[in-house]
Design a protein that fits this description.
alpha/beta; C8orf32 fold; 6-stranded mixed sheet; 7 helices; 22% strand; Papain-like_cys_pep_sf
């Protein structure tokens, strides 16, 4: 396994050494789907380079796709094309959509996770992505901003939605996954609605 320093205090670790795995399509990151290709093409047409495209794709998923908890939308999405078509999803779904848009333009993108405290108590896994530029991985959080949350695209220092508090049982998971973690994907696929999903999302890997 290869590790790449992301920020002081933690290394991000590929769970596969094959970088091409972070460009692949799968059932959730279906970047060959026409909806994904159209969205990527529209964003790419206005971008000046790969960095500008990545920043635009991040902003699009963060701002144009509603976080279903914030908006009150009961629908559960998990496939990138559905997230983009319906314009809704939780953090994991939005991460799948961003990964698909970035991989559609040959930018290696990984899925990664944090363990955070739920508002109602307990813990839950939070999903975000890492993008590879300049020989290193950089985490980005497209979950969507709200009061108290100001996540931004950055390669010069993380601008994530949250910083885990170890004293509260929170943590960053350093592994970079080429595919959605099976526990997360199983919960998304089996959920009848967002309320059901909220009860079944894993709280650890």
């Amino acid at each position: 396994m290869a590790a790449f320093l992301c920020f002081a205090g933690m290394e991000l670790i590929q769970n596969t050494a094959d970088l091409s795995a972070y460009l692949a399509a799968d059932e959730a990151i279906d970047h060959h789907h026409p909806v994904v290709r159209r969205t990527a093409g529209r964003l790419a047409a206005e971008a000046t380079d790969s960095y500008d495209y990545a920043r635009a794709a991040f902003a699009y998923v963060r701002d144009a796709v509603a976080h279903s908890q914030d908006s009150g939308d009961p629908r559960v999405t998990w496939r990138a094309s559905d997230v983009l078509a319906l314009g809704t999803g939780i953090c994991h779904a939005k991460s799948h959509a961003l990964a698909a848009l970035l991989r559609a333009e040959d930018i290696p993108t990984a899925l990664c996770y944090q363990r955070l405290t739920r508002d109602e108590g307990g813990h839950v896994l939070h999903g975000l992505v890492a993008v590879r530029f300049h020989g290193a991985w950089h985490r980005q959080d497209p979950r969507g901003n709200k009061f108290g949350v100001d996540a931004r695209f950055s390669l010069t220092g993380e601008r994530l939605a949250w910083t885990p508090d170890p004293a509260a049982g929170e943590r960053d998971h350093p592994l970079l996954y080429a595919e959605p973690h099976p526990l997360v994907l199983a919960a998304l696929r089996s959920a009848r609605d967002r309320a059901h999903l909220w009860r079944t999302l894993p709280d650890s890997l």
